[in-house]
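Might you be able to check the backbone structure tokens below? Thank you kindly.
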Amino acid sequence: MKRKSKFGLKDMGKAWKDKEVLDKVVPIVPHFSIDPEKTALLVMDMNYVCAHRDYGIGLKFPTIGLRPDYFYDRIDDTVIPNIQKLLSRFRDSGLNVMFTVMGTEKKDLSDLPDTWRRTYPRIGYDKSFPGNKEFEIREEVKPLSGEPVLMKRTSGAFVSTDIGQRLQDWGTETLIITGVETDCCVYNTAIEANDRGYQAIVVEDATTTLTRTGHKLFLEAYGAIFFFNVRSADQVVDEVQAGLRQPAETPVLAPETR
């Protein structure tokens, strides 16, 4: 049987050409407005095992065959400052914030789906359990006391955490998604949110993945057409601020009876 050829640089060129075609497509997903009181900010997988070059997948880049520069430079120079900006706006306004981390509670990985049980050791995620540095969220964007941190054992957050129940309890309609990686956990979670009726907005400059092409393709060529909105951190901050300035509706009082 003829062996299937591997995806290579020539295929990247074709994928980018497809993106140029898709760029001309009118998005199916509508533009979502932000009502701050019904909006939550999600910071995904900014724990050390996922988001620091000295841990987890960062140590596996030579094996994978990718240069770490784009991914980790973008995390340090772009993603973290923009997540900080969003956190400040949401916290100062008393709005809802939550975090996810990739990890496991059992050193034998028996709490993971079988597929991830085989994958975790290959990317260093088997070291991410409570009490280890790999499990901790990076200091620059760490949660404050009382902000939920959900352990995620799958790429999509809705499958292996109680995020859906928490959003429901908060009365959330719009979910602002940040973190890593764009074409894996961020993308899958945004689609899961859309499938459950939430307005998902992915913050382009507060997310990243292993390659620039993967980041652009999954956000602009597919996600923004079919599943979610894409905004910058500044756009989200401005829209939240504008929403907070909207005067509350004055309740209509029943006429007095004499």
The first helix runs from residue 9 to 22. Residues 35-244 form a domain with the Rossmann fold fold (CATH 3.40.50.850).
